C-alpha cells in the first residue's frame, strides 16, 4: 500500500486561492455579518503569476503591476509643483482675478436660475399637495365641521354627556364572572347534618334550663313578632314614598319605588343620591372642624342638611356658625333665610347680626325685607342710614318706599348732600325735578363729579325732552372739552354704545350729538378713518340703530365730501331705512359734491324717476349731461326712462344724438334693440350692419342681428349671421350656442355637433358650451353620448355649478340625486345653482320645509341670480301663502336680478320690455321646468 495521501485529503498548496485562475477573488455582500475571507495580497498574486508564467515558458504578465520600470520615468515630486507641470497642464496657467470673477458670475446665474425654477417647482409641489389633500383628506379635516359645531354646545349639554365606560376586556371579565358564579365546592358533612335537623321540632326541654328556671315562652315570642310586623306594615302603608296596596290580609309593597325613595333626596327639583349627600356631609363636617371660624363652611353644611330634608339640623348648624363666626355676613344671611317661615325668629336673628355688624348693608337690607308695612320698612331704613349714611342702596330703598313726590325731592337733596359722588342719585334727582330745577341739579352734579360723562349725557337728553334740539350739540361739545381737561374721556366705542342706548330709549337727537362730537375721538387724521366709520355704520345699522348709523355717515361725508363710497353707503342707508325725501336730499348733495361721479348721477336719476317725479328726473338728466357730456351710460339711462314713459320718439332722438356724439357699439346695440321692440326690423338690421362695419368683433351685435332674422323666421339668414359672428368673435361661446340651436331647428344635428365642437376648441373648458353639448344629445335622446360628454365636462370643469346641476337633474336616477348634490356642494360651497338643485330635490320628495329653507339660502347667497327667485316663486305658487309670495316679489324687486338662464331668456325678450321685476318673475316661473 502506497504511503501517498489521497488527492482530496492532501493540503492545499501554499498561497492557493480557489478559482484564482478564473479571476475569482474574495468579496463581501450586504447579507454577510462580517467581512468575507480576505483575498490574496498583491505580492502573492504577482508571485503566483510569475511562477505560472515560468512553468509555461512565458513572460510574466503586467496585469497586476508586474511591469518593468522605465528608465526615463521622472520623479513624482515634480508633479507637486504647480509651476513645473507637464503634459496636459504644461502651459502653466494660474488661477487669477478674471477666473474668480467668472466663477462668481456663473454662480450668480446658477443661483438666479435655481431661484426662478424653485418658485415654479414649489408652486407645482404645493398644487400637488393641495390636490392630494383634497382627494385624500385627513380625518381631522373630515370632522372639521363637527368640531366647529361643538362651539354651540351649552354647558348643560356637556354636563349631560354620559361617562365613558371601561370596555377593555369586557368579554373576558364577564366570562370570568360567570365562571366564578358557577364554581362548586365540596360541602362538609356538618353543614349537611345541620340542614337536615333544621326542620325538626325538638319538644324536649333541657334539664339545665329547667334547673336554672329559664323556660322558653314560645307564645310570647310569636305575639311580639306579630306586633312588630303589624307596626312595620302600618308604617309602609302610611308612607307616601312607598307604593303599598292593602287588601284584606294581603299587603304588597313596590320594592322598586320603596328603594328609590330611600336612596334619593330631592334638591331643587333634582334627585340627589343619598351616598353623595353622606360623602359631602363627611367632607363639610371635616372642613368645619378643621377651621371652626370658616363661615362659608357652616353655610355649605347647612344647605346640605336642607337638601337632605333635615331642616332642624340645618338650623342648628347655622346657629353654631353664628356663634363661631359672628363677623361673617353670609352666615347671618343664611340664618335669616332658614328662619323666614318664622318672621319673629328671623327678626331676632337679624337684630343680633346687625348688633354685631352695624356696617353690613346686606344685613340691613335683609332686616328691611322682613318688615311687612311701609312705615316699618322706612323706620328700619332710617336706622340703617344712621349707621351707614354713605350707602347709596339704603338711600334708594328709602326713596322707593316714599310715595309723596315732595318728600322724595327732599330725600334726594339730603342724599346728594350726604353722598355727593353718586352719579345715580344725581341723575335720579334730576329726573324727579322739573325742567329748571333739573338743570340746576345737573349743574351741581357736574361740579361735584367733574369726571362723570353720564351727567353730561343726561343733560343733553334733558334738552331734547324740552324740545331744544339745537342745544344738544353745544352740550356735547362742552362735555368733550371738560372731560378731556380732567383726563376722563372714555373710548370712542363706549361713546357709540351710549349713542345706541339713547336711540333705543327714544332720544335720537342726543344719539346724533354724541356721534358728531365723539366719533373721531382717538383716530388719526388719514384715509383710514373713512373705512372705520363705514364699518361702524354697517355694524350699528345691522343692530337696528339707524339714527346712530345715519349720524356717523353724515359726519363721514362732511369729512370726506368727495368720496363716492361714503355717499353710496349714505344713500343705501336712506333707501332701505329712510324716506324717499331724505334719499333724494342725500343724492342731491352727493352729485353736487361729486359732479363727475357717473354712478351717483345714475342712482339719482333712477330714484327720482321711481319716486314719480318724471320731470325732475329729466331735469337731473340734463344736469348730468352738462357735467358729463357724451357719457354712454347717461344716454342709455335717458333712453330707458323715455321708453318706460312711452316717448319713443324722444328715445330715438337721444340715441341719434348719442350715435353722433358718443358712438359706441353699445349705443348702436341699444338702438337696434329699441327698433326691434318697436318691430321696425329693417331699421334694426340696418343699424346692426352699420355698427358691424366699425365694430366687427362685437358679438352682441352679431347675436342681435341673428335673433332678429330668427324672429322673422328667416333661419338661413340667421344661420349666416351667427356663422359670421363665430368667425369674427371666436371667443364668444354664446354665438356658437345660438348657431347650433338654429342648425338643430333646421334638422342639421351633425352640423350642430360640429359647431359646438368648434366652439369648444376656440373656448376650451367652457361650461356653457359643454352643457349645451350635453343638452343637444339629451334632446336627441342619445343618453350614452350625453353621459360621455358629461364625464368630459366634469373633468374639464369640476367646479362648475351649471355642469353639476345639469347632471344631477337630468342624467342621474332619482335615488342618486341627493348623493350627487352632496358631492357637488362639497366641491363648491358657495353656488346658488346647487342650492336650488337641492331645494328642488326636497320639493320632489314633498319635504316642503327643507325645500323652502334651501330656496331661501340660494336667494340670500346670490340675490343677483334671477333663477333663484323664479324657482322660489314657482314653489310658493303651489305650497306658499299669498303673504309669502308678495314678500318674495318685493325682495326680488329690491334685488333687481340680472343673471340666470331662465331669467335672461325672459327678461331680454322684446315682449318683456316694459315689464316690472315682479311681472318678469311670474312670467319666468310659468316657463321654468
Automatic annotation (TrEMBL):
PRP1 splicing factor N-terminal domain location: 12-170
Membrane-spanning parts: none
Annotated compartments: Nucleus
GO term, biological process aspect, one: spliceosomal tri-snRNP complex assembly
Region (Disordered): 1-137
SMART domains in UniProt: HAT (SM00386), TPR (SM00028)
Record field: compositional bias (Acidic residues): 71-84
TPR repeats: 832-865
GO cellular component: catalytic step 2 spliceosome; U4/U6 x U5 tri-snRNP complex
Biased composition (Basic and acidic residues): 39-50, 103-114, 122-136
Record keywords, A-Z: mRNA processing, mRNA splicing, Nucleus, Repeat, TPR repeat
Pfam families assigned: HAT_PRP39_C (PF23241), HAT_PRP39_N (PF23240), PRP1_N (PF06424)
PROSITE patterns: TPR (PS50005)
Subunit structure, as described in the record: Associated with the spliceosome.
PANTHER family: PRE-MRNA SPLICING FACTOR, PRE-MRNA-PROCESSING FACTOR 6
Name used for this protein in its record: U4/U6 x U5 tri-snRNP complex subunit Prp1
Native species: Neocucurbitaria cava
